[in-house]
Amino acid sequence: MEHRSRKRWPVMASAGILVAMTGLVAYSPTLYRMFCDLTGYGGTVQRSVDGSMPTATSNETVKVLFDANVAPDLPWEFRPEQRSIETKFGVPTKVYYYAKNVSDETVVARATFNVTPYQTAPFFFKIECFCFTEEKLGPGQSARMPLVLYLDEQMLKDKDARNFREVTLSYTFFRQKNLSPQEIEAARNLSKGSDETDERLTTSSTQEFDNDAPRR
User: Which InterPro entries match (predicted)?
Assistant: First the structure.
């Protein structure tokens, strides 16, 4: 009996963490970020802005796979427009995600993301996009969300990450519930905001990339 209890404890602890993380995602993106910063949970990259566009000095390539998920109570379609890309280390690459509200009411949601394998997260850079902010779509409204990313060449020198040649970027959208009309109005329009981001990416010669996963 005692042996079975010891085996059951890690499972219960893991389940407790998942429940806690779902609550943090839904109600406090700030606390979620703090948790990930302290624990490295989920391979979540943190923020460190670099305004210059990187350039590649290596011919080594990496495959980036894209994943999209929605919570069960969120009536949205959500998917990457491309399942994977092959790109050189250090070369910024532009991709798109697609979302559509399939309900007959305006719905507000918030996305989180992570990068796996976890060892590669410190070397994964992307522009700030639709994460950790409240985004809304009206009935039947859709959005095409741009994303520019690159893998730092320093990954090739890291003893824990240098052998990986496949990296997965995964997003999950969670519905935001019990919002007042004022809170719904204040949420960012995902369709309009994505179009503005895409235009900025097209016309700007520099971009701000995010990464704050600590390197050992």
Answer: CtaG/Cox11_dom_sf (IPR023471), Cyt_c_oxidase_assmbl_CtaG (IPR007533)
